[in-house]
Amino acid sequence: MLLGLPKSLSFIYPSDPMRDPTLLPDLIRLSAERFPDLPAITHGKETVHYSELHDAVADFAGGLMNLGLQRGERVAIYLEKRFETVIASFGAPAAGGVFVPLNPLLKPEQVGYIMRDCNVRVLVTSPERLALLADTLKQCHDLRHVVVLDSAEPLPANGPVSYSSWSELLATPQKRGHRVIDTDVVGILYTSGSTGKPKGVVLSHRNMVAGAKSVASYLENHSGDTLLAALPLSFDAGFSQLTTAFHVGARGVLLNYLLPRDVIKAIEREKVTGLTAVPPLYIQLTQLPWPESITRHLRYFANTGGRMPRETLAALRKHLPESKPFLMYGLTEAFRSTYLPPAEVDRRPDSIGKAIPNAEILVLREDGSPCAPHEPGELVHRGALVGMGYWNDPEKTAERYKPLPLNAPGREAGLVLPEIAVFSGDTVCMDEDGFLYFIGRRDEMMKTSGYRVSPTEVEEILYATRMVGECVAFGVDHETLGQAIQVIVSAPAGREIDTAALLAECRVRMPAYMVPAGIEVRDGPLPRNPNGKIDRKTLSTAWVEKHAA
Description:
There is one protein chain. By secondary structure, this protein is α/β, with parallel strands linked by helices. It has 16 helices and 26 strands. It has three domains: 40-181, Rossmann fold (3-Layer(aba) Sandwich), CATH 3.40.50.980; 257-440, Rossmann fold, CATH 3.40.50.12780; 444-548, 2-Layer Sandwich (GMP Synthetase, Chain A, domain 3). The longest helix is centred in the N-terminal third of the chain and has 18 residues, at 50-67.
């Protein structure tokens, strides 16, 4: 068996009389106590049950302790989705360490930057990926141990860095992990930054456990659910599929897909009940046939990582008439922020909903005062899900994590200590009923002819024409307009784009200042960033460089 024989874990995980998760590994421990024989994870044709997963996590934690891992030291995981990825992600915190999930799409240079930035002490990877990192690891001066998945290939000779095989590590004697509390750091999730360097968002045990509880409550997850983990585990929404599933004793299905049709096949094969994805993936999925049987077991589909175009939502609901749509908004800095209940989708299809349980969302002016209904302002998130800042970046942290103004809702005059909230950088507005509407990223807003235009607003209209498969809008410098709106589009499956006809349709649907100055057609799909979102920054930068020549 891949994970070895079950063992008692009482001395690794002390009994919790409250029977409620406090630390990240508690999510697995408590489900293992309640549902030891239920399936926890499926990967390919293999399934691991909760008792087995629990034991493997403890074995990995004990292995790290025997390597000498100190409290709070970072453990990087550079693997595709597989059992070992999950075990290491929960086993590092069980030892009292901090897990750092590295997107498997990252190149060696990016991996090296992250490992140096957060002083990674232990790296978990595969033989194939280790070969790619040969030169990179020489520059990671804090690295002391590399754990390599089992293979027939011999491990490198130990020098400044020691090498252990996965099975060797798990076979070492169990040892109690360091004592930690729920406000301690549990993970650092790196997200793309405006300078090109990724930013490490620091999250606590409390952040992740509160997020799991909150999401599971409004999605009504239970032990009979099967959740598809299609998004990267280095992405907060991707990792949330695991935490949510483990909190309720559900099954998570790990999927490393190459083509969108692989997602549909997995949903059908594994009888998935819950799917969470980002808009670009949903756009691709709507262009494929869906077996009728899926709608009988797919209880819901949830969107995150950007606003879903109306046409895409309509197409999904046509494919899945019995499945409930959940439109969500989140940011890695606060894990998850809002959701729109299915009952409100028809009434408010453009809304990102209201705050999730145990969170409060404010819309504030520049001076910190609350905005009036329909007045644009910055989305500010307060509560238990607010992260701990950016690793090793006081400047960026000060920009996003700020004290709430004294006049903000929820702040009492007698409170002396400041409360830190996440100032998202996103412009939204709130209606009279408290429902929120996304307008755009402040750093992506286009200023043309004196008007501020959101790229998502332009993209929404382009999708509504049904003449494009995918699209991205961005502003480029213009002598008279300030910025001109440039659009890059791909054609719908099996069709071509008539740019003149598309421009004519834009003129019908948009005010004159919003009509794109140029439309460039490219073969799809458009480039993604590591989290699966269309990479607006890369596309706009490449376009500017190309046309500057």
